[in-house]
Amino acid sequence: MDRLLDLILSLMPLLGTVAGVSLFLAGAYWILLGRHPEFSGERKLPRQLVMFGLIAVGAVAIALALPVSDSTRNQVIALIGVLLSGVVAFSSTTIISNLMAGLVLHMTKPFRTGDFIRVEDYFGRVAGRGLFNTEIQTERRELVYLSNTFLISHPVSVVRSSGTIVSAVLSLGYDVHHSRVKSLLIAAARETGLEEPFVKIVELGNYAITYRVSGLLTEVKGMLSARSNFYETILDTLNEAGIEIVSPTVMSQRHLADDARIVPDEIDESLPVESSKPEEILFDKAEQAEQREKARFDLQEEIQELEGQAKISEGDARQQIADLIEQKRNQLAELEIGAKKKMRGETNVAEQDAPAKLPQQAAKSAHH
Asked: How many domains does the chain have?
């Protein structure tokens, strides 16, 4: 009986330490992560790193409370250090490197969700930014996952949200004066909706002059459609002016009369017209991700503003503001839950429109 009592007494420090560490870690998890389900992966990253550090400290504290000799206790602590070092060493080339690259991208923020980027042969809109990889949606509606180390080690071209330059390159014969060509190309750019158009002569070839016409497109989300419409307008403008868009070497391929013109017939208005906004289909996930991020940012700003108002309010007004803050936090939680469901493929058509509606609901609530 005395030996059993001595054993229990010797285990009391260990049991107390285990209980204390467990309660501490549970409380830390609730404070850092549990009560903020609406946080995105980027905002959870520093909290997850802090939680990992607390777990390591807790393991060392339990090792120190073991009822063993000092030499054995030191060996256990050394074993924990060796295990952690081994994990870091074996995963440093992949997981740790991607994680550190993700931290660099998170701090520098070279691009945002919804931006058009080009890396090597990959081009598309950013649909998601994770701790280890970045997801982009290509022109073919495919999803490509690029590791963060790949993005760090290669140049990334980002289309500016304030506008981008749309260009077209074509060759015309020497029989057409360059001033006439420039005026027609600038007129085509303006008709397409491009701002500040300009024309450059790129090359004086053996048989033709190469022109590049460019203009500023402010609505970058419709970049693909704008480029296609720009090409169509150039064709129509030059055809209407009677200018052949063909190299003079065509004479060696097919014999034509001196007065023959390579101009297509008039368009048939009864022909079906394609979708005017294919980007809505091509980059649907990237567009929804951008809307969710914007909705999350707007709601977080409104919550901070309301919290500031609550500090200087009293009585019923303060309670009303508190209720409104709780309502917006619920909206943030619903937004995060909807995003997670969409990642698992559980979202229906009605849920896809939720991110776009949330900012409107928040604006109405703030107005009232």
From this structure: 4
